[in-house]
Amino acid sequence: MSKTPSVKGITSSFGSRVAGLPKPAKIGMWIALAVFAYALPLLEPPFISPPGTDFGGVLFTVTIYMLVALGLNIVVGYAGLLDLGYVGFYAVGAYTAAILTTFHANWPLLLALPFAVLASTVSGILLGAPTLRVRGDYLAIVTLGFGEIIRLVALNTEWLGASKGINDIARPPGVELFEIPHLNWDSGTPLLDFNDTTTFIEFGVLDQIPYYWMGLTVVIIVLFADKLIKDSRVGRAWEATREDEDVAELMGVPTFRFKLLAFATGAFIGGLAGALYASRQSFINPLSFLLLFSIMFLAAVVIGGQGNRWGVLVGAFLVAYLPERFREFTDFRVLVFGAALMLLAIFRPEGLLPPRRTVRAKQAAAEIEALEEGADGEETSRV
Amino acid sequence: MLLEVEGLCVNYGHIEAIRDITFGVEEGSITTLIGANGAGKTTTLKTISGLRKVREGRILFEGKDITHLPPYERVLLGLSQSPEGRGCFPGMTVRENLDMGAYVRKDARSKAYAQDLERVFHLFPRLEERVSQTAGTMSGGEQQMLAIGRALMAKPRLILLDEPSMGLAPKFIQQIFSIIGEINEQGTTVLLVEQNAAQALKRADTAHILETGEIVRSGTGAELAGDDSVRAAYLGGDV
User: Fold this and answer.
1) Within 13 Å, how many C-alpha atoms sit on residue B6's CB side?
2) Are B71 and B160 contained in the same domain?
C-alpha cells in the first residue's frame, strides 16, 4: 500500500505544475503534444513500435478504443449508469455504415457516417427510455442483454450478412497530396527512409497511418466537446444525479431526461467509433461485436479512472495497445492482462488517474475514519 | 393558504405509509409536523416535494394542483426541500452544493445571486469558512446547515425542512431553530418536520401530530405544547 500515495503525489504535482503555467505556454505544450501524437507512427520509435504488426493500424485501434472510452465515460463516469452492453451501440454504428456503403445502397462513407451516428443515437434513446427507470444492477443486466440482442439479430438476419458479415465497406475519400518519409532506426540512429513513405492522405489497405490520423482528429474533437459539456449545466446535472438521484430531483434537475441524454450522447460517440472501425476493417461480422468488447471498453474506463477524460484515454491506450505490443506472448497475454487488472483493483481501485472528486471523497472517508477512531466525544464537539 | 394537502394517501407497495392526511400551510407561517419515528412525517414531506407517488388525495400550491407534477417542476414553482440526514452531495464542495441549490435559476453571475449567497453565509458563517471544502468531510451539523442553505439558494416561497436537528449536539439544536426562525422572518414560509417536539412547538404557528400515518392532533404550537397528553407523549412530561 505504500506505493499508492507516491503515485498520487507525482500525478497531482504534475497537474498543479501544468495548471500553474502561463496560458501561451500551456497552449504551446498542447500543440507540441498533438504534433507528437500525429507524428508517432512516422517516427516508428524502437521498442514502442510493436514488432511484426503495422504500427499505424495498432494506433488506429487505440484511437477507436479512446473514442469508445470517452463515450462510455459519459454514461458510466459522469452520469453513473453502469452500461455492460456498450458494444451494442458500436455495432449499430458499424452495421449502419456497412449497409449504407455496400450492395444495399452504395453510398460514399461520408454520407453514410451521419446516418450511422443517428442510428446509434436513436438506439440509445430507444434502449434508455424504458430502462433508465430502473437503477443500478438492473440497468447493468438490461444493457448486457441489449448488447447480445444486437449481435444475435445481426447473426440471424440474412440481410445483415448473417454469420458471413458484410464485405467491401467503403473507405474514406482520399486526396493524394504528398509523400511523408518514415524514420528508420535499423542503424541505431534515426534516418529518413524514402523507400518507406506514407501518402498524405490516402486510405489504403497496407498503410493504415491515415486512418490513425483520422481517428486521432475525431478523438481531439470529441475531447473538446466533452470538456464543453462537462463544464456546462448538463455536466453539473449529471454529477448531481450520480451523487444522489433523489436530492438532484429536489434541486430541480429532471434526472430522467439527463440520464437519457447521457445515454444518447454515449451512443452517439459509440456509433461513430463503430462506423470508423467498420470503414477501416472494410469487413465486419457478428464476431466483431462480442460481449468481450463491452467488458474491454468498460475495463478501459475503469482502469483509467472513470469520470476523468484523461484517465480514460490512458486506460483505452493500455487496453488497446499493450495486448498488441506483447503479441509474442500469445496465450499469456490474457493471463497477464487479468493479473494486471487485479493488481490495479488492489492498489488503485479508483483507476490510474481518478477525477478530483474521487480523490476528495477518498480523503473525506479517511478523515471520517480518523475521527471515529479518535475519542467519540470529539465528533460532537466538532459540530 | 400557500400549501393545501387534502386527503393524502401514500403506499409503499401494499403498506399504507400515510392515510387521509389533510392540512394547510399559511403563507408566512411556520408549520410543523411532529411525531415518532415511522409516523409518516418524512413520507408526507417527500410526497409534497414529489419524490413519492400519491395514491389518493391532492396537493395544491398557491391554489394550483401539483399532485402529479414531477419534483423539478415543483422547485420552479417555489417549493424547496432540505432532505433528511446528510442530504448533501458528498463529493462536491460547499460552494458547488450551494450552486446546485440554485440550479433552476439561470442567473449564476447576477447581483441577486451574489446577495442570496451572502444571505446564506450570513445565516451560516460556518459555510463561508468552509466554502471550498468537500461536503462529505464536514460534520453532521455542518452538512445539515449546508442542506438548508442549499435549499434557500433556490429562492423558495416554501421551504420544507426534514429533521434539521437530527444528530446535532444540544447547543446546536438551539442554534439551528433560531436560524429557522430567522429564515421565516425574512419572508420564507416554513414546513418543518421534527422529532424534537419541544423546540418545534416553541417556534411553530401551527402544529400537527402524526401517529402511524394519520394526523391525530392539530393546534397552535403553544396549545399543543401546553396540552397534558401531548406533553406526556412527546415532551417527556416536562417542557
Assistant:
1) 12
2) yes
Q: Which domain holds residue B163?
A: 1-78+156-239
- This prediction has a pTM of 0.87
Give yes or no: residues B38 and B95 share one domain: no
Report all structural domains of chain A as residue ranges with CATH numbers, in order of start: 39-373 (1.10.3470)
Residue whose C-alpha is closest to residue A382's, from B137, B84, B128, B98: B137
Can you read off the three cell numbers belonging to residue A345?
Answer: 483493483
Only one residue has cell 507512427, namely: A41
A366 CB within 8 Å of a chain B CB: no
CB proximity B222 to A under 8 Å: no
Per-residue confidence (pLDDT) for residue B51, from 0 to 100: 93
Q: Report whether B83 contacts B42 (CB < 8 A).
A: no
Q: How many CB atoms lie within 10 A of CB A201?
A: 18
In this prediction, residues A152-158 reach a mean pLDDT of 93
Residue found by looking up cell 420552479 in the block:
B76
Closest Cα in chain B, distance from residue A323 (Å): 35
Instruction: Tell me whether residue B212 is in a domain.
Output: yes
CA angle A332/A334/A335 to nearest 5° reads 65
- Say how far apart CA A225 and CA A268 lie, in whole Å: 12
Which cell goes with A180? 511523408
Would you place residue A81 in the very low, low, confident or very high pLDDT band (cuts 50, 70, 90)?
very high
Q: What's the structural domain count of chain B?
A: 2
Q: Which of B115, B139, B154 is the last residue of a domain?
A: B154
| Whether the Cβ atoms of residue B82 and residue B148 lie closer than 8 Å to each other | yes
Question: What CATH number is attached to the domain comprising B167?
Answer: 3.40.50.300
Reported confidence tier of residue A113, pLDDT bands at 50, 70, 90: very high
Beta carbon pairs, A and B, within 8 Å: 91
CA distance to partner chain A, nearest, from residue B224 (Å): 31
A372 interfaces chain B, CB cutoff of 8 Å: no
Q: The dihedral of CA A256, A261, A262, A268: what is its sign?
A: positive
At B79, is the secondary structure helix, strand, or coil? strand
Q: In a mutagenesis test of the A interface, which of B89, B133, B175 is the best target, namely the one with the most A β-carbons within 10 Å?
A: B89
Distances (CA, A) of A152 to A164, A287, B51: 13, 10, 39
Which DSSP symbol is given to B4? E
Q: At what angle do helices A255-281 and A55-72 cross, to 10 degrees?
A: 170
ipTM: 0.91
Neighbour-count burial of B43, counting CB atoms closer than 10 A to its CB (0-12 exposed, 13-18 middle, 19+ buried): buried
d(CA A146, CA A82): 13
